[in-house]
């Protein structure tokens, strides 16, 4: 069965222990829009928060599951070890350096990595983040920052940049990326850790910052123990539901264990683990987040897919109220 190449990053889902502080940081400091306040469809006792550009365009979503008792993350191997956030140009990086300092967020200064300027920092729980300049990007286009954000539109985050994976055996993951997911191995750049292999760069679709996976092999690290501030999974873009169903058939045919077709209401998905244990999701570009809320009110109330609406009272009783505009 022929499948089309993936289009790039769709979303990254991470873990927070504090939804209200998470909301404050990602909307008030980073200036993202909360486009959907909903619950984890696999465990409705926890929030699932979606931050993105103005309407949650595919490739711009950074999402969080709230697990109040999540422990400390012990960083290491077999992990999605860095999430990068695209900004338009180098001038935007200078703005962000000043803004992080204003909010007393520690950072590593503006540096060059793989021919792009970047600015690494962490959120209040140690979530590993990095702004990346799109100045030299000629690949997949970014999203459109919300014009009501506290961050000026010209400096706003326009989407997810390269996703960084850290694994003990890179060839196993590389084989999945190229042979199964149809990525192209494009290049490599030196590790910052002496004695470790170069970091391999893979791209899909139009390529560029929004369609790259950076694969780092580390033989000196223990397996990561995830907790608050860790990434749960990364999702990659499939254009339509019809194409997603082809992926379901294709993975079955080549005997890659997977979840099969999953209805998420805002998009359609499937999940599988690559050989180093990292959870990958494929997700469709649509329908999007405006099926149950108008554009102007995105993220203002607790949104539940129709198949959970009859459980609203029970669900709302189990979760701690999270004050967002409109409630």
UniProtKB/TrEMBL annotation:
Gene3D superfamilies: 2,3-Dihydroxybiphenyl 1,2-Dioxygenase, domain 1. Pfam families: Glyoxalase (PF00903). Residues 8-134, 159-285 form the VOC domain. It comes from the Bacteria. Coiled coil: none annotated. This is Glyoxalase family protein. The lineage of its organism: Bacteria, Bacillati, Bacillota, Bacilli, Bacillales.
């Amino acid at each position: 069965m022929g499948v089309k190449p993936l289009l790039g990053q769709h979303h990254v889902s991470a873990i927070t222990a504090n939804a209200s502080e998470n909301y404050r940081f990602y909307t008030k400091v980073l200036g993202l829009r909360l486009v959907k306040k909903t619950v984890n469809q696999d465990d409705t006792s926890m929030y699932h928060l979606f931050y993105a550009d103005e309407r949650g365009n595919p490739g711009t979503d950074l999402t969080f599951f709230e697990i109040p008792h999540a422990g400390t993350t012990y960083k290491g191997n077999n992990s999605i070890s860095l999430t990068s956030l695209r900004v338009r140009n180098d001038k935007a990086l200078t703005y962000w350096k000043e803004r992080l300092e204003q909010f007393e967020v520690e950072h590593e200064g503006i540096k060059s990595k793989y021919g792009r300027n970047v600015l690494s920092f962490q959120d209040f729980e140690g979530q590993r983040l990095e702004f990346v300049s799109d100045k030299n990007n000629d690949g997949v286009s970014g999203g459109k920052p919300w014009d009501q954000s506290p961050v000026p539109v010209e400096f706003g985050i326009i989407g997810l940049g390269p996703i960084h994976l850290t694994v003990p055996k890179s060839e196993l993951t590389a084989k999945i990326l190229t042979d199964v997911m149809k990525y192209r191995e494009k290049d490599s750049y030196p590790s910052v850790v002496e004695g470790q292999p170069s970091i391999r760069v893979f791209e899909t679709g139009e390529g560029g910052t929004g369609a790259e996976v950076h694969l780092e092999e580390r033989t000196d690290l223990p397996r990561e123990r995830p907790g608050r501030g860790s990434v749960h999974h990364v999702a990659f873009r499939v254009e339509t539901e019809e194409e997603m169903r082809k992926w379901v058939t294709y993975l079955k045919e080549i005997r890659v264990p997977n979840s099969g077709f999953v209805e998420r209401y805002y998009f359609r998905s499937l999940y599988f683990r690559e050989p180093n244990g990292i959870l990958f999701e494929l997700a469709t570009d649509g329908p999007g987040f405006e099926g149950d809320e108008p554009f102007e009110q995105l993220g203002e109330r607790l949104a539940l897919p129709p198949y959970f609406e009859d459980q609203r009272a029970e669900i709302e009783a189990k979760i701690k109220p999270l004050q967002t505009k409109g409630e």
